[in-house]
């Protein structure tokens, strides 16, 4: 289970749950929440990364259709698809793929959606990604495969 890290102050608190793998590597799943703890679409859910994390499929569609959403990776390679896979949001994975998210895109350390879904035990996400033709044998930069951590 991810562990909540400290949240800086501000209108929207940003939190980074951290999972320390057996190899000691920290995998960060980005998350955001409002000060009230509730996330409302689309006024608070202002980016696709957050919408995917929270499982808000309709927000993803709205943001992309409005031209304000990016379904692809950010500067460190982390993507909305990785957030959806990390948190078990099958519907978000499907809609992101329909909106042309690359189902094989990896972060800078080589972690792709299949690996992340396997790491967190999200079987339905794995099935959906396989159906979408994601590479179920893709290894990360250290050579670890999804099967090795499932």
From TrEMBL:
Any one Pfam family match given in the protein's UniProt record, by short name: Ank_2
Disordered, as annotated region: 1-22
ANK repeat positions: 76-108, 109-141
InterPro entries (UniProt xref): Ank_Repeat/CDKN_Inhibitor, Ankyrin_rpt, Ankyrin_rpt-contain_sf
SUPFAM superfamilies per UniProt: Ankyrin repeat
UniProt KW keywords: ANK repeat, Repeat
The protein, known as: Uncharacterized protein
Originating organism: Eutreptiella gymnastica
